[in-house]
Amino acid sequence: MNDDNLSQSITEQSFAIIDREMGSNHPFNPAEYAIARRVIHSTADFEFVQALRFSPGAIEGAIAALKNRVPIITDVRMVKQGIASQVARTFNNPLVCALEWASVALPGKTRTETGMLAVAREYPNGIFAIGNAPTALLALCSLIREKAISPSLAIGVPVGFVSVVESKAVLAETAVPQIRVEGRKGGSPVAAAIVNALLILAEEAG
Predict the structure, then answer these.
(1) What CATH number is attached to the domain comprising 164?
(2) Is 72 domain-assigned?
């Protein structure tokens, strides 16, 4: 068995274990479950079952946007790297990292926040995947509130202690299509898992 086949076999075994432990007693429809299962696979953490939130129509809208090659914007390089292969295998959407748009931070802002303010204005209808920086999520939400942008999807899953819960609460108050993780949990692997799952769902939808 070559490396690719072995990796696929391990993934399939992992999914089978997740399916067995999850059972049928979960709150997700099939598309939501496909995303939740991939998040659990990337984290080995079943607590995401209680923390994941999907706004109505978010998945369907994201699938349509991905098929139309809407740009995908990430907050940090780790999310970008985590989805690059799947993007290339499917719809080859433009892939942009906000951090790479800011060589220096604006006064009083982080580099990621500075980059997000710039890149969001450039791609106002993009799919935004934020897995690391709550400041980037807050910047995105400020532009949404100003009606300066209208994202196809906002994935809000930053991780940590400072401004993380608050940034997700601000996102929840917007009307933008969104997938988020409540509380302190999240991270770049979670953001990448959500995007990869959406890309696979879009490809399967034909």
Answers:
(1) 3.40.50.10230
(2) yes
Summarize pLDDT for 62-81 with one digit per residue, the tens.
Answer: 999 999 999 999 999 999 99
pLDDT tens digits along 49-60: 999 999 999 999
Instruction: Using the Cα atoms of residue 127, residue 133, residue 139 and residue 144 in order, give the sign of their dihedral.
Output: positive
Catalytic residue among 41, 53, 67, 109: 41
26 is an active site residue: no
CA–CA distances in Å: residue 160 to residues 79, 127, 174: 16, 22, 22
| Residue 179, domain extent | 50-205
Please report whether residue 42 resides in a domain: no
- Counting other chains too, the contacts that 17-22 makes at CB distance below 8 Å and 24 or more residues apart are 21/46, 22/46, 22/49
Q: What share of the chain is helix, strand, coil (3-state, %, to 5)?
A: 55, 10, 35
Side chain identity at 132, as an amino acid letter? N
Q: Which two tokens stand for residue 179?
A: 């997938």
Query: Domain count of the chain?
Result: 1
Exposure string of 34-68, with b = 16+ CB inside 10 Å and e = fewer, is: bbbbbbbbbbeeeebbebbbbbeebbebbbebbbe
Please check whether residue 189 lies inside any domain of the structure. yes
HSE of 59 in the Cβ direction (CA atoms, 13 Å)?
20
Q: Is residue 97 part of a domain?
A: yes
Rg (CA), the chain: 16
Average pLDDT (151-165) is 97
Q: Would the pTM of this model clear 0.90, i.e. be above it?
A: yes
